Amino acid sequence: MIDLKKIIYFQAVAQYGSISEAARHLFIVQPALSRQIHDLETFLGVELFTRRSRGIELTPAGEQFLLDAPYILSTLEQARSNAKRAGGISEVLHIGIAPTYTWNPAITKIISLFQKKYKNIQLIIEPTLAVSQSEKLSEGVLDAGFMAWRTKADKTKIGIPLLKCRLLIACAAGGKIESIARKSLHGLQQENCIFFPREQSPEFYDFTFMQCAKANFEPKIMETVSDFNSALGLAASDLGYTIISSASRFNCPRNITLIEYPELAEIYDLEFVYRKPIQKESVNDLIRFISKFLNKNVRMEDTFYLNE
Predict the structure, then answer these.
(1) Is there a cis peptide before residue 277, judged by omega within 30 degrees of 0?
(2) Contact 189/308 with Cβ under 8 angstroms?
(3) In what residue span(s) does the HTH lysR-type domain sit (predicted)?
(4) How would you write the pLDDT of the chain (308 residues) with one tens digit per residue?
(5) What sign does the CA torsion over 94, 95, 97, 103 have?
């Protein structure tokens, strides 16, 4: 059986040229992704990839299917929208959100209140990194997204600022690292900074270490993890510390302590981003709703307080 998920997974593997790399960006385990690709090949009756020692390559059949995939997705999405409309749901919106912001109450409140007001519009929330969100917005796979680091030079994407964010140090509550971190930021220079590779989020990576450089703080970076949650897991074990966005603090486990420093006080915006021209009227409904929400609540400063 073929479904949207299998096609999207196929596109990701083709994009990254590696099942393991695609699995990392899709936030699923490699065996599950391999199984999805195998099922798709079985359904189509052809091999889509040639497996090599240094990765995989598209076969001629895979190259053709990659060309056809956007049209298949568009047709399936239209069929699903038609069925939803017949069932009383006028439109479906696919909304991206960075995985580290999924528990932020500012975002969840907007989603919840909008869904209560517009019961005939279905929101499908898709955890997606900022880089991938931008690509999917351009491709029309996503209708909008909650993200930071929108490329300002890209005039096809418009952002509505939601939150002012800053950097926080995350470490194990009651551990050795916390006792050092409580004294000063620079005391952490001899401790391991657990961080993901730059390609995972280039803009956040650059912003983070630019702020560290301005503060004359040189983290001892240990790129031993592939994502935010893994970094928090090691930090929670007191194996080092990590640096996160204040907007991500709600995704932290309870045994993590968050510490802010005046040396790392520069802010950046988390935005609601959409693409122009707007293809669906329900996107305009969501834009108007968010604008009214912000007028009532004022733009929230996502600042962490020690006693929170």
Answers:
(1) yes
(2) no
(3) 2-59
(4) 667 788 888 988 998 888 888 888 777 778 888 888 999 999 999 999 998 877 789 999 999 999 998 888 878 777 776 776 666 656 889 999 988 898 999 999 999 999 999 988 889 999 888 878 888 888 888 999 999 988 877 888 999 999 999 999 999 999 999 999 999 999 999 999 999 888 878 889 999 999 999 999 999 998 778 788 888 989 999 999 999 999 999 999 889 999 999 999 999 999 999 998 888 889 999 999 999 998 887 544 443 322 22
(5) negative
Residue from 294, 260, 306 nearest 107 by CA: 294
Query: Does the predicted TM-score (pTM) go above 0.85?
Result: no
What's the Cα-to-Cα distance from 237 to each of 102, 172, 185, 190, 252, rounded to whole Å?
Answer: 23, 6, 20, 17, 13
SS3 content of the chain, % helix, strand, coil (to 5): 50, 20, 30
Could you tell me where the DSSP H helices lie in 45-104? Answer: 60-86
Q: What kind and span of H or E run contains 215?
A: none
The residues that bridge with 124 in the sheet, in sequence order, are 94
Contact 13, 33 (CB under 8 A): yes
* Radius of gyration for the chain, computed over Cα atoms and rounded to the nearest angstrom: 21
Contact present, 108 and 116 (Cβ < 8 Å): no
